[in-house]
Structure formats: C-alpha cells, structure tokens
Write a structure and sequence with these properties.
This protein is an alpha/beta fold. Helix 9 packs across helix 11.
Length: 274
C-alpha cells in the first residue's frame, strides 16, 4: 500500500488542485491512501481538504485530514507518518499536481526492492512574471535540477528506505535530508510528470534561495559528509559559460538572485520555490 502524506500550511489556494489531481490517479498496486496534515493553518485549508472525502471514497483511496495547531513541516511529516498504514511512502507538497500515472509508477518502482528512493519527472509550469520564467528556465538546466529524482515537491521511499531514519529532524531542508540518505545508484526516476510551481517575483526568489542555502549549510553542520552523497555533476566554468550564452536573460536573472543572496539583502516573506 502507498501512503501519500501532504503537509499543508495555509494552502487553501492550492490543496484543492493537488487533491483533485491525486485522486484522478491510475489504480495503485496494493491500494493507496492520502493523509493531509494541516499545520498552523489560519485559512480554509482544512475544510477544503475535508471536502474531498467522498471523492476519495469513490476513487478507492483511504483519506485522512489532520489539523495540527502548530506550523511545522517536519512536525507535519512526522504526524502523517505516525498514522500512515502503507509500507510505501510518498511525500507530496500541497502546491504540486501529479499526472495520473505517477503514483502507480512510483509504487511499481519501489515494490520488492531494498532501500530505494524514487521521484517523478518535474515540470515547472509557466510563471506569471517574466523574472520567474527566466530564472526557472535557467535553473532547470543546472546539474541538480537535471539529476535523477531531484525530489523537490515529491519523493517516495519503500519500507527499507524509510527505515534509514527515524523521525524527520526539525531542520530547514527535510526533503534534501531524506534524499541524501540514499546513494545516487539507489535513486530512481519514473517518467510520469508533476507540476511544481515556482514562486513569483525577484524578492521572493531571493528569500527562497537564501533559505535553500541556509538549509544546505545546516545539513553540512549537523551531518558532516552528508552533502558528499549528492552525486550531481559539477558545474564547470566552461559549462556555465555555454549555458549563459545559450540563455543570457535567464543567466542574468539567476546571477542577480545569487548576488542578492550573497549580499544579504532581504527578499519577500514567501517561501515557495527553489
């Protein structure tokens, strides 16, 4: 059985689309359930999610909505794990929409194997702002984004893989922490696609990028050597130059965000994105 855990904090705008897409999934071998873990919500996330109970029943999915008072993504992931019944686990961001074939493909990729991590094929939908479109276009060509099962927005593990850590630690980059419990050869990517929206606007991109960098620094400090398991290709000066020549606007926006992060200027309060 596959348990899909969705942490959601003030995601009323997104959770409906996320659940609608998920519950249109192809039949999952062994069955499936979805657990929405609302945490610290001050909007309509909980009632919107609860409104999908009958649709889940018609689709043959188990369905649970937890309403936690405190906002904490690791806390939400742990609460979802605590009630999950599946031996396979998928962790899905509330703003992500999956194609119908994704969950069945993940279940098949993970079944009967030792210690595996799986992801689907991410797609960044067209952003509203030209800055985000340019940044996302360039970002998708970076080594991490092109690596096998990069895991942003969606990742899954089998029972042997989930046994590699206890609870999710209270850290910034919980998804990277999970991914780096696995060597590159233990990660698989299925062809099914999912939409992962990137945050809109320059200031928001700066803030999210700063948070990402802080999360990686935190991981390196708390778990020495963990980043060595990444296994991504290096970004040489020559390769970066070729990328910049192929997309000068994307490169300029990406570099402007990077410079703003390094200079310490503050971005907006938003947190969605790379």
């Amino acid at each position: 059985m596959l348990s899909v855990i969705i942490p959601a904090s003030d995601e009323a705008e997104w959770i409906g689309r996320c659940l609608a897409a998920l519950l249109r999934s192809d039949p999952v071998p062994g069955g499936a359930e979805v657990i929405v873990v609302a945490n610290g919500c001050r909007d309509g996330t909980v009632p919107v999610a609860q409104g999908f109970a009958s649709r889940a029943e018609r689709a043959g999915w188990g369905f649970t909505v937890l309403d936690l008072p405190a906002g904490s993504k690791p806390g939400a992931l742990n609460a979802g794990d605590a009630v999950a019944e599946g031996d396979l686990r998928a962790y899905l961001d509330a703003d992500v929409t999956v194609a119908a074939e994704v969950m069945a493909q993940l279940a098949l990729a993970l079944a009967g194997r030792d210690g595996l991590y799986a992801g689907a094929t991410p797609v960044i939908p067209r952003a509203e702002s030209w800055i985000t479109r340019a940044y996302g276009r360039f970002w998708l060509r970076l080594p991490f984004a092109r690596s096998v099962a990069p895991g942003y927005g969606l990742f899954a593990v089998n029972a042997a893989g989930r046994a590699r850590w206890d609870e999710f630690p209270r850290i910034i980059s919980d998804d990277t922490f999970a991914r780096l419990q696995f060597r590159p050869e233990e990660r698989v990517q299925v062809p099914g696609a999912y939409d992962w929206p990137m945050i809109e606007g320059f200031g928001a991109l700066v803030r999210v990028r700063r948070r990402l960098d802080a999360g990686l620094a935190e991981l390196a400090a708390l778990y020495p050597g963990i980043l060595d398991r990444e296994g991504k290709a290096s970004l040489s000066t020559g390769r970066l130059t070729r990328m910049a020549l192929a997309d000068p606007v994307g490169f300029a926006v990406y570099e402007a965000v990077s410079l703003s992060v390094r200079s310490g200027r503050k971005g907006s309060a938003a947190t969605r994105g790379p």
